[in-house]
Amino acid sequence: MYKIIKNEWISYFRKKALVSITILFIVFSTVISFLSIKQNQELLQNQDKAKKHIRQQWDALNDMNPHGAAHYGSYAFKKTNVLNSLDDGVNAITGNVLRLEGHVQNEMTYSEASQSLSISKFGKLKPILLLQYVLPLFIIFLAFTSFAAERENGRLKLLIIQGASPAKLIFGKAISVALFAIVLLLITIGLQLILNKNALSNDMIVRCFLLFFSYSMYYVILSLLVVFLSAKLQTATAALTTSLAIWVVWTIFLPKIWGNTVDKINPLPSRQVFNEAMKEDRSKGIDGHNPSEDRQKALEKEILLKYKVDSLSQLPINFNGLVMQADEDYGSKVWDKHFGNNYKIVQNQKKWYQYSGIINPFASLQDASMGFSGTDVLHHLDFLKKAENYRRVFIKTLNYKQAYGGSKTNDWDWKADNAFFKSVKDFDYQTPSIKSNFSDYATNIIFLLSWLVALVLIIYFTSKNIKLL
Hints:
Blueprint: H1 2-14, H2 16-59, H3 66-72, E1 74-77, H4 91-94, E2 97-101, E3 104-105, H5 127-143, H6 148-153, H7 155-161, H8 166-195, H9 202-232, H10 236-265, H11 271-284, H12 292-307, H13 319-355, H14 361-373, H15 377-404, H16 418-423, H17 434-437, H18 442-462
Antiparallel strand pairs: 1-2, 2-3
Helix pairs in contact: 1-8, 2-8, 3-15, 5-8, 5-9, 5-10, 8-9, 9-10, 9-14, 9-18, 11-13, 12-13, 13-15, 14-18
C-alpha cells in the first residue's frame, strides 16, 4: 500500500494544473486567514475599548440614587475567542452586546449580519468556507478518475498481476487523496496557530486539535466514498456525477430539509406569543392568581412582622429597595420559565440536528466545527445565562444598597457615594473550556467514526466483486 500511495503522490506532482491549484489554495487560505484574524483582533480591540469606556463611565458616576443607577445600567460584551476567525458560527447573526438594567432582560444587539450588506447564504469569507466547501470539491475532482485513468492506460491490469488486491488499491488511492486534503487542512489550521500565537491558550490548542481530527475524518470518509464509486462505476463521468450529487445533497439539501424538519418537531414560540406570555406572567403571576399588588402586600406584611413595627415609616430600612428586589426576583422566575423553556427547545433542536449525522456526515462535521471553535448556539446560550446571572447580582447589589444603605422608605433623594459604585464588580465572560462541554459534541465524533468504519467494512467485503478491468 505504501508503494501505491507513493506512486499516487508522484503523479500528483507531475500534474501542473494540480500543483498550480494547490499553490493557489494555499495563497487564498493564507490571505483569508490573515484578513479574518486581523478582523477578529480588531473586533476584540473594539470590545475591550468599549468595555473600558463603559466601566470608566460607571466608575465616574456622581453620588446618585442606587435605583437610578439600576436604570442607568451597564453592558455585557460577548468576547469572541481566537477561533472565531476560523469559524464564526452563529456569532455573526446573534450579536455581541447585551444591555444590563433593572426590571428588563434585553436581547442581544449589534450583530454583524444586521450591519452588513454582504452577508451571503454561506456567511462571511472565512477559512471554514475553504475547508467545508472548496477542499471537498478538490477531493472529488482528484479521486473520481482514480480507476478510470488506470483502466485507460492499462496500468490497472499490471497492478493486479503484481498482486495488488482491489481493496488495497481502493484504500491506497483513497488515503493518497485524503492525505493531500489533510496537508492543506494542516496548513490552514497551522496558520491560525501561528498568526494567533500570542492569544492562544491550552484550551484553544486542544480545540484546534479536535478541529483537525474532525475534518481529517470527514476528508477520509469522502475520499473513500469517491474512490469506491470510481472503482464501482464503469466510467469516470458516472463517478464524477454521482460524487457531485452526493456532495450537493450532503452540503445543501439535507441540512436545509433536516433543519426545517427539526423546527417543526421542536418549534420555538413566535416572538409575539413569547412576549405576550412574558407580559402576562409578569402582571398576573406565573400561576395567574398572584398579581403584583398582592405580592407587594404580602411582602409588606412579612417585613413589618420581621421588624415588629406597625407602619413602613417606622422601618429602620428602605422598603422601596426590597420591593424592587422582590420585583426582580419574580421577574427572574418568569425569565427562567420562558427562556428556560426556549433553551430546552433549542438544545433539543441541536440534538435532533446532530442525529442527521447518521445519514449526513457533513452535518456532524459542521456541528463539531462550530462547537470546537466555540461559536455554536450552546456557547451563545452559555453567554446569555452567565450575563443574566451577573445582571441579577448587579441589580440586587444596587437594590440592597437602596434598602440597607442608610435611607428610609420613600426617601428617594438619598444617594450612594462614588466609592460604592466603584466597588461593584464588572462582568467578564470567559468561554467555557472544551473539557467541560465535550460531551455535547461527542455524538458528532461518534457518527464520523461510524461512517469511517462502515465505509472501510463495505469496501473490504464488496471490493472482491468489483470489476476493475
